[in-house]
Design a protein that fits this description.
The chain is an alpha/beta fold. The protein has 3 domains: 1-34, no CATH class; 40-163, Rossmann fold (3-Layer(aba) Sandwich); 165-318 and 337-367, Dihydrodipicolinate Reductase, domain 2 (2-Layer Sandwich), CATH 3.30.360. Helix content is 34%, strand content 23%. It has helices at residues 4-15, 26-29, 49-58, 74-84, 118-127, 142-154, 169-179, 207-210, 214-230, 319-333, 343-362; strands spanning 40-45, 64-70, 91-92, 108-111, 131-134, 159-161, 186-196, 234-242, 256-263, 268-274, 276-287, 290-294, 305-307, 310-311, 366-367. The strands form 2 sheets. A 9-stranded mixed beta sheet has the order 14-13-12-11-7-10-9-8-15. Strands 3-2-1-4-5-6 form a 6-stranded parallel beta sheet, with helices on both faces. β2 (64-70), α4 and β3 (91-92) form a beta-alpha-beta unit. It binds NADPH dihydro-nicotinamide-adenine-dinucleotide phosphate. NADPH dihydro-nicotinamide-adenine-dinucleotide phosphate (NDP) is lined by residues 46-51, 71-73, 76, 112-115, 117, 135-136, 162, 164, 203, 209, 217.
Length: 370
């Protein structure tokens, strides 16, 4: 369980008589078929914890392949070269990666560095003529996000944000249920996103590199989740900040924020983002004719979900592998996921975060126009 390989094994078993374990969708139908189409050749920038997870997941992909690296740590480059058979000519550092424009072996760069570096790195990758996949949050505010969108448009390259949940099977099933009206009119969303952060010296607690604190890193899941679960954009936010440890969570680095969002339909959302409260990984939605609960809702999985109709049974498999194959389809064939994950989508989350930060200062309602 957990990998695309084990999923394929299950599909094979199904073929000899055991009932199919998933609700066949186009996404999964393609998994067991042999593939001889184009492969997205990706260089990862930033060989840290999440970059390592993505690289490993890409071994399960059939439409995307890790072919290059960009890193400030020579020992990591060496290690990755041998682990993933990466040729020397596809290895770069932060000083020389603009030269990637002359490298025909690389189609896209996946930026997995601290948030505060994303904008400048995206601009450079776009200028080099390569597609950009950038981790969330796309930047540290909406102004940066818009700059990134504009630069990628001008360079005629794609800009995709690493919203892996947009390819997650249970999440997609719930979005389809909502689209089919199975919950009636969505009325209320509750999102809880948080964990207790450790090492006080890490970049995530450095305003310049992180752009904030918990909200940028984990609260963004409740923001994005409210939007895809309700299927609507917020028109206002209110927010309240709590800080119990101003030494660890310095000025501009949020520890815990409660925030509320209002939607044109009358739906409301109530969310919690925290770096100091554990076990927060839950979505709940109540509609006029039903409800859903996801717990865990956005972790690496397996995601669990249930509704007024019962437990969700879609299979788990590696989020990042689904995401990278999906992004390859988007880049090559223009095939859009159920919920977009392009730069414009990222900018919407950044605008909401800007508004939440503003609301924590003013104490009032901040109107939004997305
Ligand atoms: P890490 O600290 O583990 O890795 C970041 C890497 O960026 C470093 O290892 C380093 O790689 C590189 N880097 C370049 N400049 C700096 C710098 N000044 N300080 C620190 N690192 C630097 O972070 P994560 O991998 O956890 O997070 C990276 C990004 O991925 C963030 O934007 C985060 O929000 C996102 N993320 C997304 C997740 C998701 O589920 N979608 C989950 C986790 C993170 P090198 O030595 O190779 O240069």
């Amino acid at each position: 369980m957990g990998s695309r390989r084990s999923f394929i094994e299950k599909v094979t078993v199904s073929a000899i008589g055991v009932p199919l374990i998933f609700n066949s969708s186009k996404l999964f139908a393609a998994v067991e078929e042999p593939y001889d189409g184009p492969v997205l050749r990706v260089a990862i920038m930033g060989l840290g914890s999440y970059g390592s997870r993505v690289a490993k997941a890409m071994l399960e992909c059939k439409k995307a392949k890790l072919v290059g690296v960009i890193s400030g740590t020579p020992s990591k480059i060496k290690d990755w070269q041998s682990k993933y058979s990466i040729p020397k000519k596809n290895c770069y550092n932060y000083e020389n990666f603009d030269a990637i424009k002359n490298n025909d072996d690389i189609d896209a760069v996946y930026i997995i560095t601290p948030n505060g570096l994303h904008c400048d790195q995206t601009l450079r990758v776009a200028k080099a003529g390569k597609h950009v996949i950038c981790e969330k949050p796309m930047g540290i505010n909406a102004e940066e996000g818009q700059k990134m969108v504009d630069a990628c448009k001008a360079a005629n390259v794609k800009l995709l944000i690493g919203y892996r949940m947009h390819y997650e099977p249970k999440t997609m099933a719930l979005i389809k249920m909502r689209e089919n009206g199975e919950f009636g009119k969505p009325k209320f969303f509750q999102g809880q996103s948080g964990f207790v952060i450790g090492d006080p010296t890490q970049w995530r607690l450095n305003k310049e590199l992180a752009g904030g604190g918990a909200m940028m890193d984990i609260g963004i899941y409740s923001i994005n989740g409210a939007r895809y679960i309700l299927g609507e954009e917020p028109i206002w936010v209110t927010a309240q900040e709590t800080k119990t440890d101003p030494v660890k969570f310095k000025e501009g680095v949020d520890e815990t924020i409660q925030f509320q969002m209002g939607f044109a339909s009358g739906a409301v959302a109530n969310c919690l983002s925290s770096y100091n409260i554990g076990n927060l990984d839950r979505f709940f939605m109540s509609g006029s004719e039903g409800w859903l609960e996801m717990k865990p809702s956005t972790g690496y999985g397996p995601i669990k979900g249930r509704t007024h109709k019962g437990e969700l049974t879609q299979p788990h498999y590696t989020h990042q592998a689904l995401q990278m194959d999906g992004m390859a389809e988007l880049i090559f064939d223009g095939k859009q996921p159920l919920v977009p994950l392009d730069g414009e989508e990222g900018v919407k989350d950044m605008k909401i975060i800007d508004a939440i930060f503003k609301a924590t200062k003013t104490g009032g309602k901040v109107e939004l126009s997305l």
